[in-house]
## 1
Amino acid sequence: MVMMNAGFLLSTNALATVCIHPGIPVLMLIGHSGGVGEENAGHATVGALTEPVLQAMHIVYEKVGRFEDIRPTICDTQMLARSSRRPTAIVLNKEALR
């Protein structure tokens, strides 16, 4: 599942009821807006909430900052999602998305 962090925040109820509770593994690729250098106040707010919400939902995640690290992180994170039967996430910063 690919989304920006605002989409992740909007999907938390669905993730909890459809994936976490019944134990359905899902790998989320979350584009992170709102980091250092963000000029849009709305993006900054969403950016500040993304990791705390992932943590509150007990979703294991990895942060990726380089494009070349995406593929191996996907493999490792997908393996964890399957073995734990829980959603996992990869948070991609601006550099990884270029």
## 2
Amino acid sequence: MSRAYSISLLDQYEQDVDEIVAACDGDLRGAVRALMLVNELLEQRLWLMSAERHRDQHHPRQKLLN
């Protein structure tokens, strides 16, 4: 990864953080809370997708019936 790309990526992160804080009316605690909730939702989706994949690998016939 080039240095210019790294700097560009960091700049994008800074802009994203600014947008998140602005969306929470400057409330840093609210921004952290929002990010934690989004992270929790993403973890739940990942868990569900993993469970579904596991089910499909071990029960391929059941997948055909659904």
## 3
Amino acid sequence: MGLFSSARSWFDGNDREVARLRRNVGRINELEPAMQKLSDAELAAWMLGDGTYVTDGATLFRVAHAMPDRSRGELLVELEDCRTLELILCSSRALANLHLATVTPAEVIRSG
């Protein structure tokens, strides 16, 4: 296989990947107007749906409930510590200071 045919097959692979991703762009663009209408608290509640797992690097939490507090304009999140099963109620401001990352339990098991 020559240099040019190797380069062509590499670019052809990229073209396939780009075409696959372009199919998702239309679906994402359709969601944009609805997402723009959400408040910050509502958007955070949508992203941190019930059952989502988050970690601060040391502890794994499951989002038990996430609900907007319209009177204060922020999100209230009930986190369950996966080790102790204790429930913690946090505001969106408190969560922002925790620097949490969304994970799947399999990612935590592999890294831990």
